[in-house]
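Now read this:
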Amino acid sequence: MDFNKQYIRAKEQQAQKHKEVDHAESHDRLPPGQTETKGFPILDLGIRPSRDRYPKWTLEIRGKVKSPVTLTLDEVKNLDGGPSTGSGYKITADFHCVTRWSRYDLSWTGIPFAKIIELAKPDPLAKHLIFRSFEGYSTNVPLEELLKPNVIVAYELEGKEIPPEHGGPARLLVPHLYFWKSAKWVNALKFTDRDEPGFWETRGYHNYGDPWREQRYTYD
């Protein structure tokens, strides 16, 4: 993959130089150290799928599960009734980026991640999930964080198909963690009994990523 190496290096340097946390005051729904934006900044590794790839998109579910399966986009949508019935699962959520911007009240439609868990039937030993994306990106999230009702696999943004720059055709949304945990273009997930730090976690980012605790980077 032809990643944006300059972007990656800049982010690594940022993680390396932040050895101490400057705990700013938190204001209601804005986590400490964050600034609200009315826009929706686009940050990625420089590689995005084109829309002509959308019909070929699948979600592979594997690892420590009783029912490994690969789903098409329509099959994912139908896990919760699908848009044809008007019953897609809708959330409105705030999002917090490690680069210190926060965006309020974005509206998404998708399926609750609980539906994935219900379908896959994970082994009792499975405690973590590793998400992988179109461009080779990966990130890790504890299973317990994915059981929360605001976690979804999204396929619509503001009532429309998610554009490629924001992670379409489908992306993970974990709004209560920093945004890098909400993998764009997610196409595979693995249930595991051990943690496996992902792309940014191995490059100096915090393994957990709670914005309210300012878990931005791994500190020495």
User: Anything to note?
Assistant: The helical segments are 5-17, 73-77, 113-120, 143-146. The domain at 35-41+55-213 is CATH 3.90.420.10 (Sulfite Oxidase; Chain A, domain 2). The CA atoms of residues 21 and 96 lie 17 Å apart. Residues 19-26 have pLDDT under 50 and may be disordered.
